[in-house]
UniProtKB/TrEMBL annotation:
This is Ketol-acid reductoisomerase. It holds the Pfam family KARI_N. Substrate binds at residue 250. Pathway: Amino-acid biosynthesis; L-isoleucine biosynthesis; L-isoleucine from 2-oxobutanoate: step 2/4; Amino-acid biosynthesis; L-valine biosynthesis; L-valine from pyruvate: step 2/4. Mg(2+) 1 binds at residues 189, 193.
Amino acid sequence: MLTDAELDPTPITAKTVAIIGFGNQGRAQALNLHDSGIAVTVGLRPGSARAEDASAHGLRVASPADAAEGADLVFLLAPDEHLPGIYRAIEGSLRPGAALGFAHGLTIHYGLIEPRADLDVIMVAPKGPGAALRRLYTEGKGMVALAAVAQDATGAAWPLALAYAAALGSGRAGAGVLRSTFEQETVSDLFNESAVVWGAVPAILEAGFETLVAAGIDPRLAYLECVTELKLLADLVAERGIAGMREAISNTAEFGAASGGHRVVDEAVKARMAAMLGELRSDAFARALQQEAASDYPALREARRGARASALEAARLSLKGEPDR
Ligand SMILES: NC(=O)c1ccc[n+]([C@@H]2O[C@H](COP(=O)([O-])OP(=O)(O)OC[C@H]3O[C@@H](n4cnc5c(N)ncnc54)[C@H](OP(=O)(O)O)[C@@H]3O)[C@@H](O)[C@H]2O)c1
C-alpha cells in the first residue's frame, strides 16, 4: 500500500480537472480535490438539481462538454451504464493527450468505451461510498483506493493516477493506495456485489428471517436476530478481522458459528460462486446492465418493489414504530 510518504502529489497540482457528475462519488471527489488545491470544474447536464450544491461549494459548473474542453484530466463519475453515452458526447472536446479517469473499470474492461488512442486512461477507485470518502477527508483521514492504468499514451498516466489518489486523501495514515489493474478491480468488484457482501449477505439474512418466521417465531424477534445484529458483526470484523470477531463473542455464539456456518455456506455455495465469477469474466453482465438501463430498469424496479413489500420490511417498520418512506 502506497501512502503519502511515497506518493508524489505534484503531477496533478497545476492541472485542470473536470468531474462529470456530482452524485455519490462525483461530489466527494470534486470537493476533496478542491480542498486539496486542485482547479475543478463540475460537468452537469442542463437542469441538474445538483448544480446549486456544487456552486455553493465554490466549484465552477459547466455542461459536460464545456467542462471537458481543454481540461487536463476528465473523470467520468456518473452511473456506469450512462458513461458510454457521456463519453461519446464529450470525446470531441477532449484535448489531445488529455487523461480520462474512472472510479470503476467496467466500461473500459468490457470495451463499452473505446477511448481515443492519444488519451491516457486511468482509474482511481475508492473502496467505499462517496459520503464516507468525503467524511474521512474532512476528518483528516482517508479511504483506501485502487489505482490502475489502462492506456498510457503520454507515459505520465501512472504518476497522474497516484497523485489523484493522494489528492483524494487516500494516501493518508490508516488508508493507502493499492496498484491494480482495470480487470482485477472490475471482476472483484462485480463479484463482491453479486456474490458476497451486497448480493449473498442480504439474501442470507432474508433466508434466516423467513426460516424463523415459518417456524412460528415472532417476525420482530426474527428481524432483531437475523438483521439487526449484522452491524455488530460488521463493526467487530472491521476492528479485529474474522478471527478476532470470533474471539470477542460468547463461547455459545462462537461454538454455534464454528459448527453451523459452513453447513450453510458449503462447497456447493463455493461452486456456484465460481460459476458466477465465470459469468462476470465475460461481458454478459455489463451488456445486461446496459440493456436494463435502456429499458428503464424493469428488473431493478421489480426488486425494489418486492423488497419494500416483504414481511422482513414490515417487521423492520413495526419495530421502528413509524414508516420512513
Ligand atoms: N456509489 C459509490 O459510492 C461508488 C463507489 C466506488 C465507485 N463508484 C463508481 O463511481 C462512478 C459513479 O457512481 P456514483 O454512484 O457516484 O453515480 P451517481 O451518484 O448515480 O451519479 C449521479 C450523477 O451522475 C449524473 N448523470 C447521470 N446520468 C447522466 C448523463 N446521462 N449525463 C450526464 N450526467 C449524468 C447525475 O446528473 P444529475 O445531477 O443531472 O442527476 C449526477 O450528477 C461509477 O463508475 C461507479 O461504479 C461508485
